[in-house]
Amino acid sequence: DAMVIQNPRYQVTQFGKPVTLSCSQTLNHNVMYWYQQKSSQAPKLLFHYYDKDFNNEADTPDNFQSRRPNTSFCFLDIRSPGLGDAAMYLCATRRQGVETQYFGPGTRLLVL
Amino acid sequence: GENVEQHPSTLSVQEGDSAVIKCTYSDSASNYFPWYKQELGKRPQLIIDIRSNVGEKKDQRIAVTLNKTAKHFSLHITETQPEDSAVYFCAFNNAGNMLTFGGGTRLMVKP
């Protein structure tokens, strides 16, 4: 009964090699979020979507981009990963008008 | 910008004791205050939330209290068990319903 699914769960990439992380949801929620979480820190918001309306946080690096082709799927693209981009990447969703966010299991990214 | 302070950063209790974690927030317009539990390597899971029209909410061993005047809210866990060991994050929303998270509290329950 997985509701927010993230693939892969673990991703290893090389320094500078583009990588894409994916998120899908079965909840039909129109709001989706991407967070970056480094060890022992709080989740940090990177982007969010209201339907297809994309919103970038002011301090999200240009190296990070996102796509949302439909309600169910959302992608995080890291164009040229650096060592500092190694982190857990969390996707979350909510229904507009309801505050509760539901998190996916996350993708742990390792940059070699 | 919005800010939330969470204390303590680590908390060690004996099994069966109570644990209290406190958060102070800055945005007076906030009206939604969730608490998330995150076990090592897993997703943050919502354990309880409270809205600004109530001062306290309880769910079995977990309770949250909210003082809107003082802008702080607290998580109370009674009769702690080893499986309560995790990192707990408080959060609050802004006008756009974005969540700002506290820095987290690592709770260790010793058997």
Structural notes for this entry:
- The complex is a heterodimer of chains A (112) and B (111).
- With 112 residues, chain A is mostly beta strands.
- Chain A is built from no helices and 11 strands.
- In chain A, the strands form 2 sheets. In chain A, strands 2, 4, 5, 6, 9, 10 and 11 form a 7-stranded mixed beta sheet that branches. Chain A has a 4-stranded antiparallel beta sheet with strand order 1-3-8-7, with no helix packed on it.
- In chain A, a hairpin with a 6-residue loop joins strand 4 and strand 5 (44-50).
- Chain A is globular, with a radius of gyration of 13 Å.
- Chain B is mainly β and 111 residues long.
- Chain B has strands at 4-7, 10-14, 19-25, 32-38, 45-51, 56-59, 62-67, 72-77, 86-93, 99-101, 105-110.
- Classes of the chains: A mainly beta (112), B mainly beta (111).
- Chain A binds chain B through residues 31, 40-43, 45, 48, 90, 94, 99-106, 108, and chain B through 32, 34, 36, 41-46, 49, 51, 87, 89, 93, 97-99, 101-104, 106.
Tally of extended strands of chain B? 11
Shape of chain B: globular
Percent range for helical residues of chain A?
Answer: under 10%
Termini Cα gap of chain B: 41 Å
Gyration radius from CA atoms of chain A, angstroms: 13 Å
Give the integer mean of the pLDDT values of chain B: 93
Q: Can you summarize the main beta sheet of chain A?
A: 7 strands, mixed
Strand content of chain A: over 45%
Order of helices and strands of chain B: EEEEEEEEEEE
pLDDT averaged over residues of chain A: 93
Largest interface: A-B, 18 and 22 residues
How far is the N terminus from the C terminus of chain A?
34 Å
